Amino acid sequence: MTYRLSIYPMIRISPTVSLFLIGLLSASSGQARQPSDPISLPSHSDSKGQSPNPTVHYEMDITVHPDRHAMEGRQRLTYTNTSPDTLSRVFYHLYFNAFQPHSMMAERNRELPDPDPRTAPRIFDLGPDETGYHCIESLTQDGNTVSHRIFDTVMEVTLARPLPPGGQAVFDMTFVSQIPLQTRRSGRDSREGIDYSMTQWYPKLAQYDARGWHADSYVGREFYAPFGTFDVRITLPSEYIVGATGTLRNPDEVGHGYASDSLNTDPPAAQTDSLTWRFYAENVHDFAWSADPDYVHDVLDTEAGYTIHLLYQPDVAEVWQTLHEAAPKIMAFFEERYGPYLYPQMTIAQGGDGGMEYPMITLVTGRRSPPSLHGVTAHEVAHMWFYGMIGSNEADHAWMDEGFTNYATREALAHLRGQPRPSHAGALAGILNMKRLGLFEPLNTPSDWFDTNVAYGVSSYSGGEMMLDMLGYVISDSLRDRFLLEYHRQFTFRHAGPHDVERVAEQVSGIRLDWYFQQFGDADWELDYAVRRFRPTRDGTAWRATMTLKRLGRAVMPIDLQITLEDGSVQWVHIPLGVMQGHKPVPEDWIVAAPWA
């Protein structure tokens, strides 16, 4: 008699603890435990976490002067303290201050062994008229002048009067800014000739949550901000075409493809030296826009009711027009798998320095092949789910955004090509390679604290993708897919953290999962199981096989064991962990062994 044995997972990552399971095939077997169905889950109004009610309401009036790369702005910010704490100060982000030769962003890129080539050395060489900055000319709270102190990209404001729980304050600000030459994400005159990629461009209030203020300096990574509404007026020379977060409130005034068909043949833009564009957005935690006089503007209406805007230069038109078919298919796929798209429009604009997501708009470089353009579009649009509608703290837990987005991107591209569901083994291979090189850092390392850019990229992108893929192994692919829909339902327009991911996955599966998220999110443990001994013995006319499995590493996982007999028949055995307090649903012909303690 011969046997072929396969153990899943067989992931080698530094041995510490050994446990034994003896006499596996003689262990108890039985029906798979099924989670309760349907599952009773809380709605937005009764689930824990921050209220979906808006915390900030911005009214901004911006005038851009292209001849001197300057921007003048007035901002009225109504801030509601939704926390249980009385606040004596608030913090703003002044992101443009990062684009200077000796900012924290520049200094960090001097120290990293693998600095971002889009930033270094370009940021070190910015001249006086190429740097970026915000100059705050005035700031009041409810009409009273308040003092402020600026350090790099963070402004601390001492309140004229404390803000109690549930209290509201109105901050009026005037500011002037120099728009930097684009190095990373934001600025003017991109390498592809886009005049303005305006991301992280305005004084933005920081997020205050149960852990306090998140007033992190901008050194090149990720963002975190309160949800709210934006009413923004942008004045530019009339030849500019603009795409932005939110919906355009005055389309017939600006034309440029936004007005009704009858007006587009003679756009109002030709009748005046400048135009003021008014955009309005609800339930967003940021506002971005791009502008260029050479943009081609295509408008796509979808069956779901939202509009897709494409903005690109004429020299890439042939490739970008492939998005007429691809973009709606990508978004429809995401809606089916991850929940409805709850914004009125999506803008895909040529700009930036690669691909970067903001609510209702993404900026991507345009000179690409069709597969490359479809790939970056799928990734950035997926962020509208795992960044836009679910506002996780990217600065602390980038894997929840970038990793889930990476997972969704791979799934969407396979669907777009008419292929079956893809393997995510590449994400795991990336993690293992970093461990072999000694460069791996845990997924919950704050984004700006990684020792190398490559470690950040692998942990955040591949790590989060791996977490979702292996979650399907732990609770089943079908329940993992249900989890993603439920995660969207519970945390739309709210800030989710790692424990929220864990909690929703537990509710959907009926399985305890803290052990899973702790050891793969916070730790750097080896996961390694082996067949230690296989001993067949004769029992009368039959044979009895005794198998011993050993855990070589510190990390634990349930095991799916495949046994192939000499006659070609296959027997699957599932070995759950005791700490799971249950197990995933398995086919009826599987053996479910006693839990491994």
Describe this protein's structure.
This protein is of the alpha+beta class. Among the domains are: 4-35 and 527-592, no CATH class; 53-226, Immunoglobulin-like (Sandwich), CATH 2.60.40; 405-510, no CATH class. It has 13 helices and 30 strands. Strand 21 and strand 22 form a beta hairpin.
The computed structural class is alpha+beta
Please report the total strand number as a whole number: 30
Shape: globular
Q: β content, as a range?
A: 25-35%
Present the secondary structure layout.
Layout: E1 4-8, E2 20-22, E3 56-65, E4 70-80, E5 87-93, H1 104-111, E6 133-141, E7 144-145, E8 147-151, E9 154-163, E10 168-178, E11 187-188, E12 196-198, E13 204-205, E14 207-209, E15 212-214, E16 228-237, E17 241-244, E18 247-248, H2 251-254, H3 261-264, E19 274-284, E20 289-292, E21 296-301, E22 307-312, H4 317-320, H5 323-338, E23 345-350, E24 355-358, E25 361-364, H6 370-382, H7 384-389, H8 398-416, H9 425-437, H10 453-475, H11 477-491, H12 498-509, H13 514-521, E26 529-539, E27 542-551, E28 559-564, E29 570-575, E30 591-592
Parallel strand pairs: 3-16, 22-23, 23-25, 29-30
Antiparallel strand pairs: 1-28, 2-27, 3-4, 4-10, 5-9, 5-13, 6-7, 6-10, 8-9, 11-12, 12-20, 14-15, 16-19, 17-20, 18-19, 21-22, 24-25, 26-27, 28-29
